[in-house]
Structures are given as C-alpha cells and as structure tokens.
Amino acid sequence: MAALACGACSSPSPPRKTSSPPLTLAGTEYLSPLFRAEIREFRDQYPDADSIVIRPSGSAEGMEQLVNGEVSMSLLLRELTDPEVEAAIRRDGMQAFPVAWDAVAVIVNPASPIEQISRTELAAVYRGETKEWASLGWRQGGEIITLTAGPRLGIYAYLEQALLGGDPYAPTVYAPPTEEEVVEVVATRRNALACVSRPLAEGVGSRVKTLRVSQAIGLESIPLTRETLFTRRYPLLKPISVATSAHPAATVSSFINFVSGIDGQRIIARHGYAPATVPIRIIRTAEGVE
C-alpha cells in the first residue's frame, strides 16, 4: 500500500513508442487549452513517447476514473476528499503533483455597488449566516442569491475545504451543474453573488463584476490581477495538481517532470496561471506586468 504524496516524479527519459493505446489525462474543460499546449511541446521534445489525450471531466469524475484505472492522470483543483483518500488506499495509493496556481473570482452583477468582500464575509454568506446585502453595505440590495458550481466540479469542494473549513454550504446556495450557468445567473440577477474560476470570469468581460478580496474584515482588499496571482497575494488561490496512481507509466512520470520543469512552467505562465515549481520574477513594463 502506497501513501498519498506530493512531490516531483523521478523517471528516466520517456520510453520508446509502442503500439499501446494513448495515455489519458482527465480534466476540467477550461484547463484543456493549457494542457493541450503542454502535451504538444512534450511530444515535440520527446516524439518517441507514448501519446497522451485529454478526456474532459469534472474533478470528482476524473478522480473516480483514476481510482478505477480508466485514465492515467487526472487534474485536481482542490485537496483530495476523505472518500477519495480511502478509495486510493484501497487501490494501492495515489500521488498528486502540484504544477500551477489559479485563482477563484468572486463575481456580482455589474449593477451592484459592492466592490470588495473579505473571506470572513464570504464564508458567512455561503454558510447562510449572512443573507441580506444590507449586511455587506448595500442597503437596497435585498436578499443575496448565492451560487456555486455543482459538486461534480472542483470549485465546489475547493470552497467547502478552503473557505468554509469543511462546513457544509447553506441549503439556500444554488449549485447549477456548470460554471457557465452560474455566470449567466449573476449576469442577469442584480442581487446575485458567486465564486467561479478566474478564466471564466475574465472571459465574460463586463457581463459581471469581479470583487476585490481581503483575508479578513479590515485588511487590505486585493484585486484579482496577473500580478496578485503570480505573487500569490490574492486571498483565494487554488492549486492545480496532476494526480496519478502510485506506480504510473514511465511516460506519465516523464510528462509530469516536463510540466514541472522550466519549459512546462513557461507554458503555464504564458496561459495566465502561476507557476508552482519554479521561482518567478515580476517585471513591470509600459504595457503592464510580465
């Protein structure tokens, strides 16, 4: 039985290509462009390695597929849940390798006058302790419509773990199956609030407003920008990890080594995510931050 672990895979150079079927990486759809780029560069550098394909899925579904041996790797945007740990132990263990950081955006309708919120206040909203916008400074806001994506997606468990400390969501929290549906509600309901993945919030532009976030009431509120993500100052960060079995195929180990190395981390930075395994340097130019 192998214990769960985090770290860097160690492996020799990728194996020679055989007639074996392609290896499969399960992961959420919004990360597909990033990991397709990683796979392309990996294949360019190691043309004889086994091929890797992406199978879109939510975090929960991907982990189930990994535990059941249906995929070779799964992307993880949260900590493992207790049932996943137990299932992994029954199947000889699992490994998770952090490769990047992303952020969770707190969004409201553009008509809302609210500009910032603390983690403390946000947790109270999701627990159901704060139900009215008046408690957050918007006297005419009425009841807060609180949303998160459904439990099959990683952001649901991430908020439960990192924001609520394991406490359950209030029964009044709406949880549509996709983040796109969450954004649509926020864009059309002036009293709605939600947490969604950063790329999705950025992609819809002015249809929603992204709030600044502070660690606690009275502390500085931090905008979600490339700089605050890369320097990890933004208070709602989530890791992006690649999970594998305890004894992955040689190409899987080599691919994780590549993504964790300088070339793979450059690709992560180019796609707007914060590298997790190499130091970064912020350079301010006339055009912005590099």
UniProtKB/TrEMBL annotation:
Domain of life: Bacteria
Boundaries of every PBP domain copy: 17-259
Pfam families given in the database record: PBP_like_2
Region of interest (Disordered), residue spans: 1-24
Keywords: Signal
Record carries keyword Signal: yes
PANTHER family named among the record's database cross-references: PERIPLASMIC PHOSPHATE BINDING COMPONENT OF PHOSPHATE ABC TRANSPORTER (PTHR30570), PHOSPHATE-BINDING PROTEIN PSTS (PTHR30570:SF1)
Organism from which the protein derives: Eiseniibacteriota bacterium
Protein name: PBP domain-containing protein
Keyword Signal among record annotations: yes
Signal peptide: none
